[in-house]
Amino acid sequence: MKNNNITILAIESSCDDTSAAVIQNGKVLSNKIANQSVHAQYGGVVPELASRMHDKNILPVVQAALETSGVDKSDLDGIAFTRGPGLLGSLIVGVNFAKSLALGLNIPLIEVNHMEAHVMAHFAEEPHPQFPFLCLTVSGGHTQIVLVTDYNKMSVLGTTIDDAAGEAFDKTGKILGLPYPAGPKIDKLAKEGKPIFEFAKPKVGEYDFSFSGLKTSILYFLQKQVKADPEFVNTHLNDICASVQSSIVNILIAKITLAASNLKINNIALAGGVSANSELRSAFTDLGIKQQWNTYIPAFEYCTDNAAMIGISGYYHYLNGNFSHQGVTPMPRMKI
Length: 336
Description:
Blueprint: E1 7-12, E2 18-24, E3 27-34, H1 47-69, E4 78-84, H2 88-105, E5 109-113, H3 114-120, E6 133-138, E7 143-150, E8 153-159, H4 165-176, H5 182-190, H6 212-228, H7 232-263, E9 267-271, H8 278-291, E10 294-296, H9 307-319
Parallel strand pairs: 1-4, 4-5, 6-9, 9-10
Antiparallel strand pairs: 1-2, 2-3, 6-7, 7-8
């Protein structure tokens, strides 16, 4: 007979990380991730290779999550999974595994929106944000400002109309000849340089983002400089990285400042894979002190794609009885 604990197994497979976690009463008992290094040689994620690696990794990762948590699968109350957004082939692996396991155990399925889960990562550890709060969610494929009024109750105030901030980092890195993923490498090199170069700033809707123009501005700038000096990139690499990173961070900070001011909200959160960027974290924290905000940033392990955030979101869906049926299918373009 089960006790009064609510125990959720969570599965995340939206891109190239296979992850499983066990959440009990809203607490993270385990959070396991299998990364895929195969994509580095191609300069980006190859969808077909990603789905094959998910198929290979998912069972061992789930077993590791259960073993670490000390929970037997017979004690599970529900299976939470990423339904979208993400790569279709990758999502199919996670969704089908979750459906099969839930059917075999005769327990509920709980679909989770990947971007919603990035926001809910703030509830993996204390301190938790107080409602209502604004969340600047910055990941590889999405950049959003989200108004959060309750657990899993969110509305998107602004989003990217083209490239996301993470894409701007990676695409710039590719132009510079840096290995994929370029974000962490740019962050490291920027520490040794100064933001002395200026690039075009996007002019879009009040809370929306655009990084395509910035990327083009960087490309044209580099082409012009290299034409005059073929060694320009090698000579000024640190300063280029510092300038690119500063431009992206300034755009993000300006937008969340505007939203917080207009809505008069002082509980402000940062989430998503790009929130691991050291300059963004520092600028966000410093701004919070200046503006007298209550600021929140998840631990590093909950910033990038992980199943713990899926499980936290799934737990609150479970409490509200928000269950899925066995006919559920992946939604690669799923929106909050």
